[in-house]
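Team,

Forwarding the record for the chain on the shared tracking sheet. I've put the sequence and predicted structure together so nobody has to dig through attachments.
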Amino acid sequence: MEQFITVISEKRNIGFTLIPFYATLNESGTLKLIEQATKEHIQDERFDFTPAQKEVVKLLVSINEQNLFKRFSKQKNLKLFFEKLEEQFTLEHIRPVMDDKITQALEIISLSDIPVYFKDPNYSSIYSSDRIKVRALHDQPLFDFNLEPTGLKYTLKIKTETGEMGLTNREVAEITTSPCTFLINNQLFRFQNIDSKKFKPFLKVNHLIIQPRSVDAYMSSFVENCVRDFPVQANGFFINNKDARLVPLLILEHDLSQQPVFTLKFKYDDREYLAGTRSRVFVNHRKMKGHHIFDRFNRKTEEEQQIIETLIGLGLKGVSESQYRPINQQQPSTEMHQVVEWLNANAHTLAAKGIKVVQQGFEQNYYTGGVKLTMQYTEDNDWFDIKAVILIDEFKIPFQQIRQHIIRGRREFILPDKAVFIIPDEWFTKYTDLMHFVKADGEQLKLDKMHYNLLDQELLGEVSPQWQQRMEQLKQRTINYDTPDGLQATLRSYQLDGFKWMKLLNSNRFGGILADDMGLGKTIQTIALLLNQYETKAVNDSYNNAQGQLNMFDGVQGFNNSAVPASLIVMPTSLVHNWANELIKFAPNLKIYLYTGNNRTKSKEIGKILKHYHVVLTSYGIARNDIEYLKHYQFHYAILDESQNIKNPGSKIYQAVSDIQSTYKLVLTGTPIENALVDLWAQMNFVNKGLLGNLNFFKNHYAGPIEKKQDEAKEQKLRELINPFILRRTKEMVAKELPPVSEQTLVCDMTEEQQKFYEREKSGIRNELMKAIEQTGVNKNAILALQALTRLRQIANHPALVDTSYKGSSGKYEQIFEKLNNAISEHHKVLIFSSFVKDLELIEKDLIASKTKYAKLTGATGDRQKVIKSFTDDEDCRVFLISLKAGGVGLNLIEADYVFVLNPWWNPAAEAQAINRAHRIGQTKNVFVYKFIAADTIEEKIAKLQERKSALADTFITTNNPLKDLSENELRELFA
């Protein structure tokens, strides 16, 4: 019967090996070897191998003579290779590989039922008596030491189940060297972690003797290792098996590259061991009163592993088996800060787990303990008093002391004991903005209540429930107020929300920016607020002056005029009469004073007149010119309409309105940001002075990072600051009843004559501009570039805009009139917007020639209302020519349902304003918008540039100036 066996046999020049065989058992009990088992056999389904047999075959085939020859020989002859094989080469290269495979195979054999036989190379047969016993358990070496005055005598034996077995004078076959495997009397003795070299002396002698002069050194090295790794019998010295306490050590030090690193060690008694040390037993050798003592203790591997898992759970990552760094560690220059900050943040957890923190090798002593920050808020009129204290061991540090560190980004703060405290990075993220806005008051900080969003929301329990409720209302913009009785209109739901929001700001003495889309009724919401401020419970006398203008010496009837001063509304000149009409229509009880023309009272005692009125209307120009008189009156409200007019903080109009004295402030605008974030600062600083800091701070801290670096964290902080004080709703959000608006961009091919004119001009402009830029740079030639840009835009519309002698046509004009004639023939009304008045004049000539009735509104128009009325009331007036500057705001032209935008503008909001003249509340017809762009011209590049430069348009900014922050390469590309 065939069976699978393994055979131990000795091969010339390579020593003992283990070979897998097929064999048959004869009737006489003799085993006959048939053939060696190979990988081909275990892949053949005819042979029924067990998984253990397959694994043994794979291991042993890898060290058969053929495979050893392939691996280690450069010769072509196998027989010659083994004949000339040198012993040293075998010991250093071949035997380690063979020992490893044989050891693995014997481990599998010991746990399975695979027979092992010994075959003497001098005999051909194998008998049942040649079977070798292989136990599943490994054998233990036993070191027997006897320390006497004459020296240290020791022997090495094998610890067996029945006692001890010496090796002296026994026939021992060394099957493997490391780890050691012996064959003695048909039994394999398999050892772990010990090689045969330690046994060899005792094959010939019973014991060895170490001379007295060498005993101490021998005890501290060889004997200590034996006590650690093996069973030892000790005579003349002591071995204490102890239960030593584990103390984890987390050592902050430099690694080989001089970067900070955590080294984890485990301390047992007085000895420290690196994490990752393989030995499961530690031994501490000491000598006391002439006696050698070995303290032996088992490592607490489970506790050590728990420590490692704790560190990883706290955010460390291993860079080796014993060294760790914070998982979020970034730049080398900040590594020390990060590792110390990690220690500070986790100090209490480390202490609770018994992990001792040690730092060594640093010039400075870093504080590595726990840190606690406490903040208490108390209210004081319009301020929060903030008592913030940092608790660091026995030190109580007022937060005020690190305020400048937070503002300037300095991480290291020196404690009273000279230790260096690393300010947590989280504090910079959390409190930098707060520290810019607080004011120092001794060891306390004061914060204006308008900055309440900067407070730590988790600690707001320290303030009164009433103020918490008010903050929540401001955050949610929800509070109930009844609309004033005298309002002669029904507010839409979103308009009612806007009124309530403005009233909520008013009740908290805050200013605000109402930034609803054009056409959503900012005027009616503001009128509702003003009525709310002036109404009393008494029956009001009706006021119905058709002109909305009182005699300056008349008194206010039916309102509490003595307690509430007049309110001032400043607006573009074109809107003054519109505001007057709206007030008369919707709030007839409010008395209006038109501070315009001859009604201007140039006196510092202007209050004697204004106190008789509720609402004073004036223009930006008059406010600028008469501020020396207006500033002497304390208005109830100062309201700016189309407040983007004060977007330039350096302008005279901004300085003038800033001097207006009022209890409350409000601004209205559909485009709070036209050019840059500074626009927002100017308007917000008017309504809530100091909310965004001074202008330089705002530019450096918010505008620069957001506009140039797309800093999302700064953007979020700015949003949080302004959110309670700005309300913006788009038509898509709130006026869903509006009919749809369809926009189409028409790319118009230039005529051949126009194309030649454009290319000739572009070539000359580009050469002149590039030459100037090369000589003096981009910045000094910004005006020249803008002039060049404007000229090419005009030519793209029609060359006649720059050359009156041009007699050719324009591809764009041909399409404009094709669309216009179709719209007029279908009885539609059309708004035509252009940023060039000359553009409109060319269109006007063709309209006159075709006898088409039209209206025109430009900056030169005298009676705006008459022009507007001629378009809105005359059914035959089908076309309204409007310049952007004159008609971008303040017009309600819902009679029109077609809008032509003749040229692209830098600011997308400007185009939106034009469209909103027709697409606004009250419009019932679908609105169609056509935007005309000349193909292969500067206009197409402007459109692409606009997309690239307006990433923050919906968040904060719409780019109004395409040359702003343009690089030289981008400028060259624009004129290419």
